[in-house]
Amino acid sequence: MPFQIPYTVVLASKSPRRHELMRGLGIDFTVRTRDVDESFPAHLQGAEIATFLSDKKATAFSADLSDRELLITADTIVWLGDMVFNKPGSRQEAINMVAALCGRMHEVYTGVTLSTTTLRHTFYDVSKVYFGQMERSDIAWYIDQYKPFDKAGAYGIQEWIGYAGIERIDGSFYNVMGLPTRKLYTELKNLLK
């Protein structure tokens, strides 16, 4: 890492994809998790939902942070038209979600919150993802093989469906995976100047 982070970095995420992306950035971190209610006010849309949830996750840890720690929380949502697709609750819901995304463009928003005992900074990134048409049998096969029940929109772009179903992306690939790495790097660098 070309610059020094003068804190112990704590990533509040169980996501193996976020762990991988943080390691890819060269950031040393520890993991601390807590179950947080991911409900949000119904009037929020797109980026507002992702940043609200990221900030809500940060609030759940605020009493536990030491002054030597920098907490990173994040939330990724899939936004289609005016509907949010979070993690699917069942196999059928997962199949229906992916089927709804096929042949259309959707947006993936990731909200990220950086917190210390003296500051909190929240930002987001957005990527536009274009799904091609897919047969329902292919979608069902993907859901059964990869079980993407821990993923917003019921798919992982780095998995088979990304190779077979995604026509193009406008924006950060890593944002779709769950963490906008370039933006995170830039925000950290600016924040710690």
Low-pLDDT sequence parts: none
Supply Rg.
17 Å
Helix-and-strand structural type = alpha/beta
Q: Could you describe the largest sheet, including whether it forms a barrel?
A: 7 strands, mixed
Give a written overview of the molecule.
- The chain starts with 7 loop residues before the first strand and ends with a helix.
- The chain contains seven helices and seven strands.
- Helix 3 (91-101) packs across helix 4 (136-146).
- 36% of the residues lie in helices and 25% in strands.
- Strands 1, 2, 3, 4, 5, 6 and 7 form a seven-stranded mixed β-sheet that branches.
- It is of the alpha/beta class and 193 residues long.
- The longest helix has 15 residues, at 47-61.
Secondary-structure topology with pairs:
Blueprint: E1 8-11, H1 16-25, E2 30-31, H2 47-61, E3 69-80, E4 83-85, H3 91-101, E5 105-115, E6 120-131, H4 136-146, H5 160-165, E7 166-170, H6 173-177, H7 181-191
Parallel strand pairs: 1-2, 1-3
Antiparallel strand pairs: 3-4, 3-5, 5-6, 6-7
Features:
193 residues, alpha/beta, seven-stranded mixed beta sheet, 36% helix
Task: Summarize the model shown.
The chain is built from 7 helices and 7 strands, in the order βαβαββαββααβαα. It is of the alpha/beta class and 193 residues long.
